[in-house]
Amino acid sequence: MSKKTLLNSKDIEIILHRLACQLIENHNDFSNTVLIGLQPRGTFLANRLANLLKTAYNIKDLKLGLLDITFYRDDFRRKDTPLAAETTRIDFLIENKKVVIIDDVLFSGRSIRAALTAIQSFGRPDSIELLVLIDRRFSRHLPIQPNYRGRQVDAINEEKVLVSWKETHKKDAVYIEQT
After folding, report:
1. Cβ partners under 8 Å of residue 78, min gap 6
2. Tens digits of per-residue pLDDT, 45-57?
3. DSSP letter at 76?
4. What CA–CA distance (Å, rounded) separates 171 from 154?
5. H helix count then E strand count, the chain
6. pLDDT, tens digit, for every residue of 10-29?
7. Chain Cα centroid distance, residue 162
8. Total Cβ atoms within 10 A of residue 121
9. E strand segments, the chain
10. Distance CA 170, CA 1 (A)
11. Is the dihedral of CA 102, 6, 163, 80 positive or negative?
12. Distance CA 158, CA 11 (A)
């Protein structure tokens, strides 16, 4: 297996600032907007963006939730081993709010479909947008496109996109791995 670096730590930092600025352009002070990170891997990106918006861009009242989609996945019962659920933490109302769903990699679109179903359990949002760090453009099974993307990648199905965060892997990087 060969692994090629797609993004290094500096690239990711620049992308995070760009994504934060794009969110501010569209949501201003976030008074009617909430961010929802998808468990498990979207939470790192969501936490980073929320921290950046608060510290670097002075967004005061930012609401961030974490959503587990395990039991909403269409492949939930097709796995050989049971899936382990994460914790959902949404301690605010999403009724009539603008929701930004955040995930690390958009691949087939199935996780986002599950998130759209799961989010309905918390109310009816005014609108839902999607923010991803990596958009794997040619691998969609469902007609889902991001509103905000860090980088678009034309990876073939045999290639795997791996996102590592300094919180878990000691450094920020995105790799493409040949299997």
Report:
1. none
2. 999 999 999 999 9
3. G
4. 24
5. 4, 8
6. 999 999 999 999 999 999 99
7. 14
8. 11
9. 3-7, 33-38, 63-67, 98-106, 127-136, 148-153, 159-164, 173-178
10. 21
11. positive
12. 24
Pairing of strands 127-136, 98-106: parallel
Which residues have a Cβ under 8 Å from the Cβ of 16 and sit 6 or more positions away?
48, 49, 52, 150
* Residue 123, both tokens: 């109310």
pLDDT of 123 strictly over 80: yes
d(CA 108, CA 137) in angstroms, rounded, equals: 9
**Alpha-carbon gap, residue 169 to 179, rounded angstroms:** 20
Assign 121 to helix, strand or coil: helix
The amino acid sitting at 159 is E
Q: What is the mean pLDDT of the chain?
A: 91
Q: How far is CA 71 from the centre of its chain?
A: 18
129: its two tokens: 């947008």
Is the Cβ–Cβ distance between 158 and 144 less than 8 Å?
no
User: How much is the pTM?
Assistant: 0.93
What is the dihedral angle through the alpha carbons of 106, 145, 62, 20, rounded to the nearest 10 degrees? Answer: 80
Q: Which two tokens stand for residue 136?
A: 């794997």
Task: Please list the residues that pair with 20 across neighbouring strands.
Answer: none
* Nearest by Cα to 106 from 70, 140, 129, 76: 140
